[in-house]
Design a protein that fits this description.
about 25% helix; homodimer; 15 helices; about 550 residues; alpha/beta; GMP Synthetase, Chain A, domain 3; Rossmann fold; globular
Chain lengths: ~550, ~550
Amino acid sequence: MLSTMQDAPLSIAQLLRHGASVHGASEVVTWTESGPRRVSYADIGKRCAQLAHALRGLGVEGDERVATFMWNNSEHLEAYLAIPSMGAVLHTLNIRLFPEQLIHVANHAEDRVIIVDPSLIPLLSPQLPSLTTVKHIIVTGSSTAGLEAPEGVQVHTYEGLIADQPTEFDWPEVDELSAAAMCYTSGTTGDPKGVVYSHRSIYLHSMQVCMSDGPNLAQGDRALAVVPQFHAMSWGLPYAAFMIGASLIMPDRFLQPAPLAAIIASEKPTFAAAVPTIWQGLHLYLEQNPQDISSMREVLIGGSAVPPALMHAFEADHNVSVLHAWGMTETSPLGSVARPPAGVTGDAMWKYRYSQGRFPASVQARLIDDDGKVVAHDGVSVGELEVRGPWITGSYYGVDAEDKFNDGWLKTGDVGSITADGFLSLSDRSKDIIKSGGEWISSVDLENAVMGHPDVTEAAVIGVPDEKWDERPLVAVVLRAGSETTMSELQQYLSDKVAKWQLPENWAVVQEVPKTSVGKFDKKRLRADYHEGGLEVTRL
Amino acid sequence: MLSTMQDAPLSIAQLLRHGASVHGASEVVTWTESGPRRVSYADIGKRCAQLAHALRGLGVEGDERVATFMWNNSEHLEAYLAIPSMGAVLHTLNIRLFPEQLIHVANHAEDRVIIVDPSLIPLLSPQLPSLTTVKHIIVTGSSTAGLEAPEGVQVHTYEGLIADQPTEFDWPEVDELSAAAMCYTSGTTGDPKGVVYSHRSIYLHSMQVCMSDGPNLAQGDRALAVVPQFHAMSWGLPYAAFMIGASLIMPDRFLQPAPLAAIIASEKPTFAAAVPTIWQGLHLYLEQNPQDISSMREVLIGGSAVPPALMHAFEADHNVSVLHAWGMTETSPLGSVARPPAGVTGDAMWKYRYSQGRFPASVQARLIDDDGKVVAHDGVSVGELEVRGPWITGSYYGVDAEDKFNDGWLKTGDVGSITADGFLSLSDRSKDIIKSGGEWISSVDLENAVMGHPDVTEAAVIGVPDEKWDERPLVAVVLRAGSETTMSELQQYLSDKVAKWQLPENWAVVQEVPKTSVGKFDKKRLRADYHEGGLEVTRL
């Protein structure tokens, strides 16, 4: 039996039309050296039409890729809306990739146009000769100064290009399953892999951002999007803001604590989103430079686990509620959100809020053990998290990666447990967990325990081969300058903090823990160092 | 370019799985003669599996229709979830239809099974011999007393049927575009027409119910669903509650002010939904029987325009906010919701809240004038409202109704204006508006003006043929018993309330304004009375 419902596709063009008309008075604020710069959503709508005409004029047709190499700003928002709405595909280039990664992803996606901010020209320019498919570079603003384009590549200013274009565009009706935007993961292993979002997935995800079990973004909100637009679509805030009419506050390149504090003072955001290090930096800064930041009803923190101390500090010192969430580029990225069950208070409430949170109805989650069996959601049993849903990726663009999927579910590479009422607690990455005599030891838990020692500034834990137990933990520590703490003193320090059988016997002092391009511990590199004899290991 | 997103259909089964597991502790409360009866969502999940097994056992396969003839209660919720999840189609029969309409819709939908509440057996039983496709009647509870089934129809008790069934069911994965539920409109003209909702449309609509520009239903809410489950799917509350984990409070047949007040006292709802007459009755009752009802953060009112006085009364007397909304069976039903723009206060805020409200991103709206042209959204220009979107019907089941659609848009039959920021104000039904010399006169505005006179208890306005002006208004009034007010006094009373050219010259006193099966003015009947000479018209 057929339904009688209309065949009305979910599309970015509909978000653009809606935001620019019904919420035309909402605004996007971009921070500059001289303070805020404002554009209304009504004007964003007109400028999106102009940008689309300009891109057509440059020959962009069909599903060709138009890339951005940009900070968070109003022009980046225009690219977010106009490029998918005209049927092309937005590719957000991560400005923090290593040069060889950047070249790989731009060529792999076959980017035809790149829109770049003037302040990022020095990062992009040297790589241009290696980009084989790019025909046009568009520099935001009115000057292309500093950009050296290779032969065959045309350079334009953004304002010059759109200036005389019509302010209306007849947005085509698209198949909702078609590609709208793509983002490459900054994976720690191998080349970055491309995730391609559809109009449908972005639209559904935007609804979730405005739902009560999600961030609950609302029309009156002023959302400070610190999380970059090149990082998992700024967690979906730009599209959700246009869906609901929330205003957006974009920090551009001013991501340090002092300008962030100035942005908050000037623009009074009600909501904000960023990784933990941003909030840690802001909190330290505010200790020295007190300021009321309580306009923010809630700050969304994800990307890595939030230290409980940080959550308490924001609440106690600033009357700002921290909302912990889990997701990844592959999940659009909203997976779980740590809203405690209504009515729960005190320690029980905090336990829920420390967790990675609960999945919405649209994201199914399951845990798989070493034998491939589904593990109970009992808050104790541990397995690798697999997820499924309409905004979860089912493959990667143009590469074979079957080992990342299990019967249609995405293998997240995260290991943890889920309670009967659906709350996820992650303990480690599956590739980092240490499998010792059939039991799993969380490298992250050990690291946190070691880093509790006052003389330890960094600690990374990896599994190393062991004849008896298969694997045992090795701790690489960075000691405070001048510290004379010994490895056995550190082991002793752990003795009342972890189970006896988990106590590490392998220790190494290092100058620095190697990091990936996005600043995470590079344990792949650390393991290579170990196997190549690059670590001086003390065995206790 | 293909997206890499998973092919994960939006389905009722996913709502059922999610609500019954993650929100297993939430509950549905059904009111009974002896107070509340409670079932947890975890148990609803088990009983849904049992119901599905039982229906399979009765031979229900594929997309066969299973109808309900029920009040709002936990068994009706189970039918809502289990029937579409097993791939069958739920048909909610309107218990207030005239017998010939009921027979028509049950036969037209080819209902195979009907689930009926014991208290409704007297309404259903006499029609059973006329139902040509029904093979099974299931009576909720444990007794079939009073039901006389025709030959060939088997009768079962609900509890007997499900008692020994397994509490798990392997819900099939459905095409999200397939039929999930159907509801016939109680149209004032012709036979009721069937709207068939898809899994996709119900799922998307449920998300909207939990969004900040919708009712914003949340996990901690306790939603009192007074609006019947046989009336536009109880405005989507049952499905949305399972999506988000809000508890449901179902009044069953106890819809009078006194039991509603008792339900509120006992169950402390935070949210409620009903048509204006329910709230008017409750407000009057509470004047005589004071009670704190402020557990309700918000009451959603739709179905017909809300009198501003009622909104103010609830806010001033009871500290309960009234949320006005517009929709129809054909729109699932959430169309527009009257949340004022953030920060607007005082009279301006009230003007927004009196209106029919603003459409969400998923519902496009336009106004069409007599010439078929799109009218500006300027708050002044008037046209017939047409809507388009993924939960708006694009046809009716098994009938040709092309005149109800315009190039894929649903013609709502409502006439009004829309402001630049998207707020809809309805003035009349298109078939009731009076077209006088090229200008439109709202019959509703005239009725409201006449009903302001203290001696008038009811007034209905229709257009009647006029040689000079094409049409002119006729007012049919019901006077207070014993009143000696004359028609010219009423016309005089209007003279400072409506424009001179709108002043009606045709008047008729009637004993009662004829009503439709759902209690609305039956203007079709009134027009027929006029043309058949059944009205005694005074021409001034």
